[in-house]
Amino acid sequence: MNEGQKTDVSLKRALGLSTSTLLVVGLLIGSGVFKKIVPMAQTGMGETAILLAWLVAGVVSLFGALTVGGLAKITEESGGTYEYLQLSFGKFTGFLSGWADFMIMGPGSLAALAFLFAQSVNSIVPIPQPFQSLESISIADFISPFADSGIKLLGIAAIVALTGINYLGVHKSGIVNNAITAVKILGILMLIFLGVTYSKPEVITETLAANAVNPRDGMLFLSAFLTAMLGAFWAYSGWDNATNISGEIINPKRNVPKAIAYGILIVMAIYILVNFAYMNVLPLEKLRATGENEIGAMVVAKTLLGSQGNILLSVLIVISVFGCLNSNLVTIPRRYFRMAEKGYFFKDVKKVHPRFRTPYMALTYSMVWSCILLVSGSFDMLTDMVIFASFLFYGLLAIALIKLKRNGTIKAKVTGYPVIPVIYLLFSVAFCINTFWAQPKQSALGILLILTGVPFYYYFKKKNTHEVKAS
Q: What is the pLDDT confidence band of residue 97, given thresholds at 50, 70 and 90?
């Protein structure tokens, strides 16, 4: 098959604006809404600064969404970042972004979410560890395949089950996502209501003001604020995965930008309100004293509802992470499908199921690699290493929009252009510089892992050339 040739069976456009918006919300609301209040409180920031950090991180994410929304006007195909970058800068740049997503960012995120889901279940009902006697076995002193074996097996089961649902059709997975997202939003809204209406002693506010980092401290305050904002920014990550399924969204040039923007605005409101509720229930001193492995929302729930609060919050976290896992399973494999369709990934990944019209082989590849990363237990390290590189691609998206607007490829009006993409580019550059300065080894290793895709690119390119000549 010639490069770029379409498959006989195409993906089905079945997702409207409301489902696409809920998909974005499902992609974003995972564990961060429950966990990030503790590390943010430990920065020494006051209540107002913490809420501001959530707001600023949300606005930056919205700027990224508006930037991608402008790029969404150039194609109706699936593939997301890969598609936009290869159309803007050529096949090589697009391939490297897709390869980085396949190697670490996509399956690494799925593995981490599945592990966290199983951990949350374990906090409610203890899971047996069938290979506990083999936990001491390790590979290269950092891969321990038999550690937490019961949790890993449940995580694998969750990945396989949700992949099966996605295999049966994007419409069915959309229904599952809508139901789960609705339940977790209702649960969080109930938590917000209970937290906002909770009365606490007035003396707490005075204690907080005395111990918070003072904005007059200059660089100390800025450093604490950036640290808090990055914590919030982590909770907003994943919105760009919605662009991977443009080929299955009805009227994607209109609905993709709207769905991402609406989704981020909904999540921003939820994050700000729920964190306000947390801090209305407990003083920041109490949240700062919370253990590193404890979930701040559970401490708050216990204060509100007693011992039953932990159980109810654990159930909500299970639902939330399960829904986030499903949303990512819907979107991530579509990028590999588009790469294969273009001739720059393994050939069978472009296959579409003749009955269900889903990219079943892309789903299978994603499932297998995610399970391998989950068993290895090294996914946290891997995803940390590529944060630096992922923001390189975010910066390239801003440059791509500016380039395509200047050369006339994108003629339609883009909201906020050119101010928003320029601000987003500057933020991405600053983030990359700061990350490389703070974590040079992890950043360099992340780039090295992405560059392992270079020989694969030339292999696929050579293969495409031979096929064109043969035809």
A: very high
List, for residues 390-416, the tens digit of each pLDDT value.
788 989 999 999 999 999 898 888 889
| Number of domains into which the chain is organized | 1
Is residue 394 in some structural domain?
no
Q: pLDDT tens for residues 48-60?
A: 889 999 999 999 9
SS (H, E, C) the chain: CCCCCCCCCCCCCCECHHHHHHHHHHHHCCCHHHHCHHHHHCCCCCHHHHHHHHHHHHHHHHHHHHHHHHHHHHCCCCCCHHHHHHHHHCHHHHHHHHHHHHHHHHHHHHHHHHHHHHHHHHHHCCCCCCCHHHCCCCECCCECCCCCHHHHHHHHHHHHHHHHHHHCCHHHHHHHHHHHHHHHHHHHHHHHHHHHCCCCCCHHHHHHHHHCCCHHHCHHHHHHHHHHHHHHHHHHCCHHHHHHHHHHECCHHHHHHHHHHHHHHHHHHHHHHHHHHHHHHCCHHHHHCCCCCCCHHHHHHHHHHCHHHHHHHHHHHHHHHHHHHHHHHHHHHHHHHHHHHCCCCCHHHHCCCCCCCCCHHHHHHHHHHHHHHHHHCCHHHHHHHCHHHHHHHHHHHHHHHHHHHHCCCCCCCCCCCCHHHHHHHHHHHHHHHHHHHHCHHHHHHHHHHHHCHHHHHHHHHHHHHHHHHHC
| Among 200-214, 250-264, 316-330, 371-385, the least confident range | 200-214
Cβ atoms within 10 Å of 222's Cβ, excluding its own: 12
Alpha carbon 229 to its chain's center: 16
- Domain span including residue 370: 17-377
**Distance (Å, whole) CA 155 – CA 157:** 5
| Confidence (pLDDT) at 208 | 42
> Which residues have C-beta within 8 Å of that of residue 32, sequence separation ≥ 6?
232, 234, 235, 236
- Residue 282 covered by a domain: yes
Which CATH number does the domain housing residue 160 bear?
1.20.1740.10
Quote the pTM value: 0.78
Q: Report pLDDT digits (tens) over 219-239.
A: 777 777 877 777 788 788 878
Does residue 181 belong to any structural domain of this protein?
Answer: yes
pLDDT digits 0-9 by tens, 302-352: 888 887 777 888 888 888 888 888 888 888 888 898 899 889 999 899 998
Note whether residue 74 is domain-resident: yes
Cα(first)–Cα(last) distance of the chain, in Å? Answer: 8
